[in-house]
Each structure stands twice: as C-alpha cells, then as structure tokens.
Write a structure and sequence with these properties.
The chain contains six helices and 13 strands. The chain is an alpha+beta fold and 282 residues long. It is elongated and about 85 Å long.
Length: 282
C-alpha cells in the first residue's frame, strides 16, 4: 500500500474518532479550501457516517450525531458544545414540553481523487496539507436533521417548541419557510420559532414528526424523525384504572452498598398500586 494511503487512513482515524484533536483546525491548520463550497470538511468512518443518515428516519441520537460531526468539522467553529443541547433535553425529560432541534448544513468530504493521487500529505509538523493541483478533490454534500429532544414522551397532550437557540443553519442560504407535521393527523403547519404548538395524540405509540424547510433558492428539504409517546400515569389511571405513582429519591438517601462495589444514585422511579377484586388495598 502506498505511504500516502497509509497517512490518509491514519488521518481518517484521527478525524472520525475526534479523540486526538479539538476540531478540524487542529488537523488542517491554514488549510487551502480552494474548491470547497463551504467551510466544513467532514470525514466519515465505519462507526460514524452522517452520509448514511440521508433519507432515513431520524431521532434524538441521530441529531446528536449530525450536530457533533458538523461542529467538529467546521473551520469557523460556529456551533456550540453539544452538552448545551443535552442540558435542554434533560430539563424537559419528565414534562409535557417537547423542545425541538433542527440543523441544515452543507459540507465537503474528500473524494477518491484525493485519496488515490497523493494529494494529501503530512508535513514536518505532523499536520495534514494538500498538494497544489487542478484536480477537484472534494465531494459536496448537504444534510438536514431535526428531532424532538426526547427519546420518549410520557403523556399524549404535549407542547412543542423550536427555540431560536436550537435552530442551526451553517449554509449561506436562508430558510424562507419552516413546516412541521407532528403526526397527529392535522398535517403540515407553518412554524414560527419560539412559539408553542399544542398537540393531542389520540393513542400512544411511535409517532412520525415530519420537518420541511424551503430555502431562498427554492430548494425544499424534508426529514422525518420518530418519537415514542406513552400514556402518563394520570392517563393510565383514567383510561385503564391503573393507579401508578411516581416518586423521587431526592429526599431519601439510597442504601449503602459501596462495600459490594456498587454505587447508588438518587433518581426517579414509579410504582403501581394493585387493588383486590373488591377495590380494597390489602
């Protein structure tokens, strides 16, 4: 195998695992971006490839994958830390409020010409550079991902909101129209940022939420995400006479089991109360 190809594979490993560098600028300082249409240079790997997410149903975790990949690969570093978004998701985990998040991005990857023609090399400072050439070494991509910031929603009467701080567009295009079909039978609604949208699901189950954006050049991009909805304790009691009580361990210390190499944490849980046939708690 050519030495250059070995270097390229090593670069892919470093690039895709994010383990050795803070962002793309650490790998390609002062990189010549001639031929790129964006400022984002992404490298897919066998364990993480956002190119494979196109035309697939997204969810909370695929959104995280896209966001983190674009954030790392952006020479301008326009996206904040993913933990900020995760904190938003955590604050609404047990509520009927469902924060939404959306990202549209255009980016480049190296094509086979770059990989096979010794056009990428490592310099004396252990940094990757490109050899000057008239060959086009990039493939051009776009990706659209959106999802509810919850893996599961307890309660069928919910409120969706897409905050300005969770709407990300790294392209030079503007979004002229945003529409969402919440999967409640109403169809697409025109959405304004920072506004609440109340939705009532008639049944529990896996819901498909469809997002559609119209760009200023007329292009329309669509993506479908999934959200699992289950009945709340109150709804279960009302519909099926199941008496389920939620509780937290915030005021009660967990058992002392450290001698058994276990480390308990305070958290949240629930229990169901079963009555006898004569509706008496035995």
């Amino acid at each position: 195998m050519k030495k250059t190809n070995l270097l390229f594979i090593k670069y892919l490993i470093i690039f895709s695992t994010f383990g050795y560098s803070q962002n793309i600028n650490d790998i390609f300082p002062d990189f010549d971006k001639s031929g790129m249409h964006s400022d984002i240079l992404y490298s897919p790997s066998s364990i993480s490839n956002i190119n494979d997410l196109k035309n697939k149903t997204h969810d909370l975790y695929s959104f995280y994958q896209v966001y983190k990949s674009i954030a790392f690969s952006d020479f301008q570093q326009r996206l904040g830390n993913l933990d900020i978004i995760k904190d938003v998701a955590m604050t609404q985990l047990l509520s009927t409020n469902i924060p939404l998040a959306l990202i549209y991005s255009e980016y480049e990857t190296f094509n086979d010409v770059a990989k096979n023609n010794q056009l990428i090399y490592k310099n004396s400072d252990n940094k990757f550079q490109r050899i000057q050439s008239n060959l086009d070494i990039f493939e051009h991509h776009q990706i659209f991902s959106a999802a509810a910031l919850k893996p599961i929603q307890r309660g069928s009467e919910v409120t969706f909101n897409l905050a300005t701080t969770l709407f990300f567009n790294t392209s030079n295009k503007t979004v002229n129209l945003l529409e969402i079909d919440f999967g409640d039978g109403v169809g697409y609604r025109t959405i304004q940022l920072d506004e609440d949208y109340n939705v009532v699901y008639e049944t529990e189950g896996l819901k498909q939420i469809s997002f559609k954006i119209t760009l200023n050049n007329g292009d329309i991009n669509e993506v479908v995400s999934s959200l699992k909805v289950i009945y709340s304790n109150e709804e279960l009691n009302e519909k099926f006479n199941q008496d389920i009580v939620g509780f937290t361990s915030g005021t009660t210390d967990p058992p002392y089991i450290q001698p058994y190499n276990e480390y308990p944490f305070k958290g949240w849980g629930e229990m169901e109360i079963f009555y006898s046939a004569d509706n008496i708690l035995d």
